[in-house]
Specification:
The chain is of the alpha/beta class and 341 residues long. It folds into two domains: 3-140, Vaccinia Virus protein VP39 (Rossmann fold, 3-Layer(aba) Sandwich), CATH 3.40.50.150; 153-336, 3-Layer(aba) Sandwich (Rossmann fold), CATH 3.40.50. Helix content is 25%, strand content 31%. The chain has helices at residues 3-10, 46-54, 81-94, 111-118, 181-186, 207-215, 228-240, 281-289, 310-318, and strands at 17-22, 37-43, 59-61, 72-76, 100-106, 124-130, 133-139, 154-160, 163-169, 197-201, 220-225, 248-252, 263-268, 273-274, 277-278, 294-305, 322-327, 330-336. It catalyses: guanosine(1207) in 16S rRNA + S-adenosyl-L-methionine = N(2)-methylguanosine(1207) in 16S rRNA + S-adenosyl-L-homocysteine + H(+). InterPro entries: DNA_methylase_N6_adenine_CS, Mtase_sm_N, rRNA_ssu_MeTfrase_C, RsmC/RlmG, SAM-dependent_MTases_sf, Small_mtfrase_dom. Keywords: Cytoplasm, Methyltransferase, rRNA processing, S-adenosyl-L-methionine, Transferase. Residues 5-156 form the Methyltransferase small N-terminal domain.
Length: 341
């Protein structure tokens, strides 16, 4: 069990009634709480959501607060400070005065900083410090009127050749307030991507998806991400740029295994972080499985940190991996499904 969950169980006497576990790890915490607790989960991680559902735990996958009454919430600190501000706002917009918010996080994950964010709504008390984690309690002394989701958007403009894109990104989404270097290295090559049915794996704020759609209105774009905030951001980016939403297919995925088949191209700046931890599983799975999801002569385009050893993984299934660019610490990698395997 996750050490944060172990600390919550140590202090389970503080919990009672309808308890919402927010951003909880995919473990059995909800099933190990006492009978006086009816626990459910709010998560924006689709892989975790599927894990909870398969374990019989009631889970809500969304960017918005569940439409149900709760007596208490336990927030597992997210990596993003802005995302925690959003979560706290929606929590105090739905709960009542004197109800309790609990905050749990790893010390190296910034739990002490996060506890200070609670102070805008009430006094805090540290309940426990164990397993390199801390558990805090705050009794709500100030509630708020719920602000629309768009209030939390960050927007910025990206100039690509003669095209200009307005990017919309919600809290916690990768590259929320600027174009990241990896995508900037990849973007000049997007004009070479085949038309047809294209998957953008790890779509984030939708920069790649929107630009591919803008270049060719006949493309069908499948924007894939594990994160509900990323999927909503991509949709908002399409809307902000006046792109045709019938081109866009938003799909929550647990990993690349859930991607559509018979694709003409796969384009990705693949993720390799899970919360505060580095995790290469999703991007390595992409390299290994991509060919199975492509039509004959379908293309794979990836941008990755120079130090990541993806070419051998791609070569194992495609037979050849070409380096189209190597600059600013990133490589653009290309493979074609009709090459000899």
């Amino acid at each position: 069990m996750d050490p944060r969950s172990e600390v919550v169980i140590r202090q389970q006497d503080y919990l009672s009634g309808q308890v919402l576990l927010i951003n909880a790890p995919n473990d059995q915490l909800a099933k190990n709480l006492p009978n006086k607790v009816q626990a459910s989960v709010w998560t924006w991680n689709y892989a975790d959501h599927q894990g909870f559902i398969s374990s019989g735990i009631h889970s809500h996958f969304s960017v918005e607060f569940p439409q149900a009454p709760f007596d208490q919430v336990v927030i597992f600190v997210p990596k993003s400070k802005e995302l925690l501000n959003y979560i706290l706002h929606v929590v105090v917009s739905h709960l009542k005065l004197d109800q309790n918010i609990f905050l749990i996080g790893e010390k190296k994950g910034g739990v002490e900083r996060a506890a200070k964010q609670l102070l805008q709504y009430g006094k805090t008390l540290k309940l426990d410090s164990a397993r390199h984690c801390q558990l805090w309690q705050m009794k709500i002394e100030k509630t708020e009127q719920l602000k629309p989701l768009e209030h939390w958007l960050k927007t910025y403009t990206v100039q690509i050749d003669q095209e200009q894109l307005n990017i919309c990104a919600l809290p916690g989404v990768f590259s929320q307030d600027h174009l990241d270097v990896g995508t900037a290295v990849l973007v000049p090559y997007l004009s070479q991507v085949k038309s047809g049915k294209i998957a953008d794996f790890g779509c984030g704020a939708g920069i790649i998806s929107a630009y591919l759609a803008k270049l060719d209105s006949n493309r069908q774009i499948f924007a894939l991400d594990v994160d509900a905030f990323a999927l909503r951001s991509t949709e908002l980016t399409f809307q902000r740029n006046g792109l045709n939403l019938t081109q866009l297919n938003l799909q929550a995925v647990t990993g690349f295994v859930d991607a559509p088949n018979d694709l003409d191209a796969i384009v990705s700046n693949p993720p390799f972080h899970q919360g505060i931890h580095t995790n290469y599983d999703a991007s390595e799975e992409l390299c290994q499985r991509a060919k199975r999801h492509l039509k004959n002569s379908g293309e794979l385009w990836i941008v990755a940190n120079r130090f990541l050893n993806y070419p051998p993984l791609i070569e194992q299934s495609f037979g050849e991996c070409l380096v189209k660019a190597d600059q600013q610490g990133f490589k653009v990698l290309y493979a074609c499904a009709n090459r000899v395997s």
